[in-house]
Amino acid sequence: MIASETASTTQRTHRAGTGRAWWSALLAALGMLVSYTATAVVLPEDRTDLLYHHYDGGGVTVKGPAMLVRKSAGDNVSISGRYYVDTISSASIDVVTTASPYKDKREEFGVGIDYLHGNSLVQASMSSSKENDYLADTLSLNVSHDLFGGLTTLNLGFSQGQDTVQRVDTSFEEDINRYNFRMGATQVLSKSLLLGVAYEGISEEGYLSNPYRSARVLGATLPEQYPGTRDSQAVAVRLVKGFSSDQQPVISSVRADYRYFRDNWGIRSNTLKVALQRYFGSRVLGEARYRYYQQSAATFYSDNFASEMTYMARDKELSTFHSHSLGAKVTWYFLDRKYLFLDRMSLNFSHDYVNFDYQDFTDVRTGELYSFGANILQLYISAWY
Amino acid sequence: MTRTHLTSALLCAIALLAGCAGVKSYEREMLADPIMSFSRDTLSDQYLEHVYEVREGARGATTTQGGGCGCN
């Protein structure tokens, strides 16, 4: 079992390591800045997306609208606003085996500002999420900088979040503090090949359990108990390769993405994504994608504990499992010329099917290992202006 | 190898790659196309990452950055 002292020591070691890495990154970046001149980065496009999403799987239905609006103000500033709703109807295996089905609604608001200064783009944003038993506020700051004539872009980012965990119809209330450190780079390797690398470290402290979920001990149920801290690191490498034809300078692309994740709860995971995008004429863009995910269990996870432990979890998200996801997206640019204040508009539809297979989480109703499939649908309209 | 060494090696590798790339501005037409982006539809990709994040133990280093999610 993980002891809190071990977790705390790991956290201190992680923070010291993070500090050295940041100094090293900063010095190397400054060295490169002195040696090369660069061209300017640009502000994000003025664009609005209106989206409707629908998830259905494992007894859970989540649906709702989402909107993202972005507009520049002058040559150096862009402002964005985001609104997102999850309307949840849950009769998941956790719920039907230990409680009653429930309905909930989560709303998220976000605002952001981008400031372009020379070859650097500074992005500041905040978001606030609210549901009847969970509140979350996040502040983020990101800095991007172009180097080598725009061939390399370096990114550094930091976020701080505070969540409030509640339990309905009780006075229960606990906090979580979260710190995200991000760094990454995008590199032009050739006129048709892009490479991206990213690192993100996340430190959390506070009430990381779920106040509703129970662990099983020799078949009996007891409240879950998690460590009070969690530190994780994720590293990703991604590539995009473009292809042309005699008729079109760009006709298709292949995107590949791999991520390795580890945390001090003992979870190790691998994520692999591959996507193929292709134009069909000048107005239709199709995408086919596949995603594989695999993880090992947290050290304090058990399907059924043999005795009561300090830390106990029976959250299937902390168990050993893998998933396969297959999806397709179609984009139709139904307006591809200037009309009033609009430059372009598209209608998009995507459908992903994902199947989760759990290796050490049983359905207590049947005694069989649990698995389920889910459909993820998105319909959205995008406008550029 | 410590993380410090890894970070330095990464940045040196980027500097080396940049020196080798030599792609002129007028040769970047393909790179500017939406299908060459790691995330061409931010809102859609944020939603999809959120769907996976609440059902998996891993998080971070994705192509999008979402807000608070109420994930536990």
Model description:
The complex is a heterodimer of chains A (385) and B (72). Chain A has 385 residues and is mostly beta strands. Chain A has one domain: monomeric porin ompg (Porin, Beta Barrel), CATH 2.40.160. Chain A has two helices and 18 strands. A 16-stranded antiparallel barrel of chain A has the order 1-2-3-4-5-6-7-8-9-12-13-14-15-16-17-18. Chain A starts with a helix and ends with a strand. The N terminus of chain A is likely disordered. With 72 residues, chain B is mainly α. Chain B contains two helices and no strands. The radius of gyration of chain B is 17 Å and the shape is flat. Chain B starts with a helix and ends in a 19-residue tail after the last helix. The model of chain B has no long low-confidence stretch (mean pLDDT 79).
Strand proportion of chain A: over 45%
Rounded average pLDDT of chain A: 90
Strand content of chain B: under 5%
Q: What class do helices, strands and sheet pairing of chain A give?
A: mainly beta
Average pLDDT of chain B, rounded to a whole number, is: 79
Short description, anyone?
With 385 residues, chain A is mainly beta. Chain A is built from two helices and 18 strands.
Salient structural properties:
heterodimer, A: 385 residues, mainly beta, Porin, 16-stranded antiparallel beta barrel, two-stranded antiparallel ribbon, 2 helices, 18 strands, globular, disordered N terminus, B: 72 residues, mainly alpha, flat
